[in-house]
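Data availability (excerpt). The following record was deposited with the supplementary files.
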Amino acid sequence: MDEFTFINSIKQTSYKQSSLLKGIGDDAAVFRQTSQDVVTTVDTFVENVHFSRKTMEPFHIGHRVLAANVSDMAAMGSMPAFYLVSIVIPPHWSDEELQQIYQGMRMLANNYKVDLIGGDTVSGNELAISITVIGYVDKNKARYRSSAEIEDIVFVTGTLGDSRAGFHILTQPGQYTDKEYYMNKHRLPSPRVTFSHELRQLSRIALNDVSDGIANEAAEIAEASEVSIVLDYDKLPRSAAFHQFSVDQQRNWQLFGGEDFELIGTVAKSDWPLIKQLAEQTNTKVTEIGYVDNKQTNLVYLQEKGQRVVLKKQGYTHFK
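Predicted structure:
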């Protein structure tokens, strides 16, 4: 399939966003928005670095790379509207496999009414996918890591460590409880867009998405807000069958595993009842896991067994 035939095969025949004036078909897309702030994010994913055919089918790859960007939008309090895909295609990937990648993206995009409006295709030695997502947020309602304040409650959505558990199951075959659940948490994550959108009712909240491990994400909030954060290890939410893994695995995956694409946030104590109400309305599990302590160290502390120790800022890093 040549480049132009391929582009025609993946472009949308109709669009969902009313602000779009021109989609795929010209040198650039055109959209108009005057009533909201525009938020954009971009990520690049490389085969055998960010994903592998050993653990994912092409459909899963497409779903997951777009989900990572959509999760970033949720962390900003933004509703995604458009996405662009630039892809480097090696000769050993078939046309059918490439179509499956875009089908995976399309399934996730349809859930949030997100339109594909452009991108680029080039040939190369290894598959690489760069995703740009553009979204909208009410004026002055974008959420920043720098918004945490002393005595805030620290919370997280969902459960932690499940994606890393899924990766373990996919790479270490054996008998496991809730096997499909964990594999799907790794291959087909669901960003917390709906819950995040409802948080627009709050005047202040700090958010970060759990892509590189909660230790890393909490540290980013602490540093940006110039505060210290205390996390209670016993309060970290675990899935029902998580106990089947070793104590060390549970600890490492919850704190440093990453790729859960949940949200960690801090909110004033007075707004915590509203957080729980919005979580119930959107069928989102939320758990209080700690608090913002002071402005002295800009560190994250882990409270465990009556002791408090510094939690190192570690997790997945691209240049490790």
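Summary of structural features: The CA atoms of residues 10 and 99 lie 7 Å apart.
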